[in-house]
Structure formats: structure tokens, C-alpha cells
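Hi, here's the filled form for the chain we discussed.

Project: internal
Contact: R.S.
Residues: 160
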Amino acid sequence: SQTTVRLLVSLARQHALDRTIVALSWHSMHKYELSNYQYGATTIGACARAGTWTDAIQFFNMLSESELDSDGSTSNAVINACQKAGEWEKALKHVGDMVQVKVELGTNTFNTSISACEKGGKWEHALRLVSAMAQSNVECSTITFSAMVCACEKGGEWEK
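And the returned structure, exactly as it came back:
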């Protein structure tokens, strides 16, 4: 199982989504049990580190299509990949998709989304996310407020 995870991470870092899919299919055929975290979050996280947010989204969509449960950690990894690439709109779209399929949004999801807005200079969207956290009774953290302050600063709205 550790060998499989290392293989998936290595392929993702090489931007080899097609070979990653082959490796996953092989493991599926041979009935190797991998958790959703091992399948999704690890591989998508490697895509984020490699700067390939499009591969991260493609891989996530493949997981959904093959009926693997897309838990919060896998979704958060996609949002993180988008955030690292400065794709704040894609990050927020993914959050919206999570809400539609009733994946519970936690502090990490909101923080990463707020950071994506900050990177894009979209302080208004970041502020809406903080409001949504309060409405959803999701606890804010130091990271939440720091990302919000940075978003306002980048947007020229530091007095907000």
C-alpha cells in the first residue's frame, strides 16, 4: 500500500495522469484495498505540488466517476491545487460543487478557499466565505483571519 502511494505520487509529479489511471486500474483489478485518502488526497496533493491544477481536477472527476467517495480531504486537495495555481474561480466552483453533493465544509476548506481569493485579490469573495463560515457554525482560526486580512490588503481594502 505504501509502495502504491509512492507510485501514485511519483506519477502525479511527472504530470502522468494517464499512467496514474492505468496504475489505479491495475490495483483495482487485483483487489488491492486503498483508502479514498490514498487514492485521492495523496495523488491530488502531488498534482498541487507539481502545479498541475488541471490534473488535480481531472483526477478528482475520475475518482467521482469510478464511484469512489469523494470525502472532504480529497476535495480540499483539489481546492488547494487551484489555490496554489491562483485559480480562485475554480476553487470556489469546487466549493460550490461540494455544497451541492452535501460534503461538509470544514475550517480547512474555508481557509484554503479564502487563501485562493486572497491570491486572486478578491477580498469580497473572501469576506463572503468568512460570513458563510459563521452562518454554517464553522469555527474560524488564526489562519482564517490572517488570510482574510491578506485578501483585504491585496485588494486595497485593508481598512475593512
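Let me know if anything looks off before we file it.
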